[in-house]
Amino acid sequence: MPSGGTATARETEIETETSAMTEQPSPSLEGNGLSNVRGAVYLPYRVFNHYQMWDRYAPAEIERDLTFASNLGLNSLRAFASYTVWRENPAAFRDRFDHFLGAAADRGIAVLPMLFESIGVDPTPSNVARDIPIRSPGGAVLRNRGRWGETAEFVRWFAARYGDHEGLLALEVMNEPGELDHRVAFVREMLRVARETHPTVPLTVGCKTLDLNRQYADAVDALQFHHNLPPTADQMRQKLGEASDLSAEVGKPVWLTEWQRTRAGPPDKMLPNYDSLADVVRDSDIDGEFFWQLMLNPAYNLKVRSMGRINGVFTEDGGVYSLEGARALAGFDEWDAPQIRPEWTETAGSE
């Protein structure tokens, strides 16, 4: 409901249903805080990149979404920071991130912020307003080692300010840097800067595959891999076993930080189907997992978005796209919320 508006009968009904969700205690992080991680990737509803999230930051909506996450039994969220917004208005970004971490901690949720993003187009004034992925930093900075002092300033500020915050899980230096030499060098330099600034803050990198972790294994505290759309549940089970083996080999926890569903199968291969993998992921030996994504949105990747893929659990009014999927994520059949299919989802689905 807009600020200052009057609730309609349906809005009042949704609010009542949402507040009556069957709640379970969120799982507590274990050991050094890097195990028993159960989370989701977070972008607000109908927000498409890190710039939009922090430029349009709405505290009441953030608190609402964090409550949804807590009600689902999550103890972590993986969310983009925004170097671009920080460069434009450091005080505003500081105040907004302070609120985000504080509100998360109040709900027993630890945040895994992604400091930089490799995917998307350059953060030009015209691009940041578009509903597309935005890379951070831009290519001109990333390819010029002489300008890495600019990004190092952000890493130092972030690690110093938030390294001891109770709402911080770890610092993810970059999402999916891949194996291009200049990106690997950039990530290793930012890891060095973060470690130098705050020797004990946990560090990690959003690697797309398990093998890419070997580029950073000596410099991070937790390994990551993404496996969004395995062909079958058995294939996911095999990959999770390989992740456990790698964790044992290097002696560090491993997290699956992006997963969605099996690639094929009912009800429609382009729509959310978290129940196709939730039990497999939960029953594995890995230390943490984050599904993509908490809030219902068109796909982040433009190619699959054009094919009709949508991801997510919650609508902005507290409904869920699939009650069966939400119950699978929560881990028990009694979990409840209204099932709502927003009008914009009606054209999504099959290629």
TrEMBL record:
Residues 21-33 have a biased composition (Polar residues). Residues 1-33 are annotated as: Disordered. This is Glycoside hydrolase family 5 domain-containing protein. It comes from Halogeometricum pallidum JCM 14848.
